[in-house]
Amino acid sequence: MRLKQLTPQGSSFQSFHVRHDTYPKNHNVWHYHEELEFIQIRRGSGTLFIGDCIRKFEPGDVVLIGPNIPHYWFFDPEYLDVIEPVATDNCVIHFQKSFAGEGFFYLPEMTTIKDLLMEANKGLWYKCDSTDPLNKLFEDILIADSFEQLLILLQALHIFHHKKKSTLVSDHYAILNHSSDHKRMNDVVDYIQTNFKQHIELSDLANLAGMTNNSFCRYFKQKTGKTPLEFITELRIASACKFLSDTSTPLKEVCFECGYNNYVSFHNAFKSITGLTPKSYKIKARLV
Q1: Nearest to 216 by CA among 234, 189, 179
Q2: How far is CA 226 from CA 63, 96, 181, in A?
Q3: What is the DSSP string of 147-213?
Q4: CA–CA dist 251, 256 (Å, integer)
Q5: What's the rounded Cα separation, in Å, for the pair 250 and 240?
Q6: Which parts of 74-145 fold into alpha helices (H)?
């Protein structure tokens, strides 16, 4: 997992950039950028890390991410297979708040979109069904010429504003200068990502960061909005949700697969984060 500031590729003559991704090479790094990111997941699934939020993503998800919010789309293993990866299908749009001109969104007619771009600082999520007009707009913008793309983007943002959306980043999360020591943070999160299914000692993480245990806990909370234990727990539960949704694996086996050595701890952690017991979640997932 690599945290770095990225500048979306595209011509310097473009006010925004549209990209069609069929492989998650541009997503599977922890990164941030000055541009907003407006993305529709058309094919692909995994775990989204954004600010202090960790949640599953799947086809139909539409997300608007504000500027300089660190995020990382960790696709499921089948999409990252070195030999025969499963193709993804995602539409990604990057744009700055001033992409239509410095004063454009101060026009009375643009109030709704201006408000939406402010809301994006918290990260916004919406689930699109097959009949939603946003589907057609994301499809059309990939093949339209530059003038039509501008109109489609404005229309998509206008429609998205009126959807019933969820906020992803908590109110107390602070957007920091993440570039100052990103290698240290990358090393720590890489280690957690690789080893979360096993027992992880706080001292191992602190040593990796070159800090004492107490200093590391303060540092990690400042960067992610979570304690190391909270971060690891949410990552484990996100993994458990995939197992419970996609397989017939017995509950106790899911418990061990996700890093817990007893079912009671797993049950309590799962219910605390999802609001459901593992059994209830599994039944609900099968009914969807």
Answers
A1: 189
A2: 22, 28, 18
A3: HHHHHHHHHHHHHHHTS--EE-S-TT-----TTTTHHHHHHHHHHHHHHTTS---HHHHHHHHTS-H
A4: 9
A5: 11
A6: 111-119, 133-141
Cα first-last separation, the chain: 32
Tokens of 102: 């410095």
Angle, helix 278-287 to helix 263-274, in steps of 10 degrees: 60
**CA–CA separation, 225 and 187 (whole Å):** 18
Q: Distance between CA 281 and CA 206 in Å, rounded?
A: 34
The two structure tokens encoding residue 276: 């459901």
* SS3 (DSSP) at 54: strand
Greatest alpha-carbon pair distance for the chain in Å reads: 58
Predicted structure pTM score: 0.81
For the record, the structure tokens of 142 come out as 């990939």
Token readout for 59 is: 């086809």
- What would the pLDDT profile of 211-261 be if each residue is shown by its tens digit? 999 999 999 988 888 999 999 999 999 999 988 887 778 898 999 999 999
Q: What is the CA radius of gyration of the chain?
A: 20
**pLDDT tens figures, 69-119:** 988 888 888 888 878 889 999 999 999 988 888 888 889 989 999 999 999
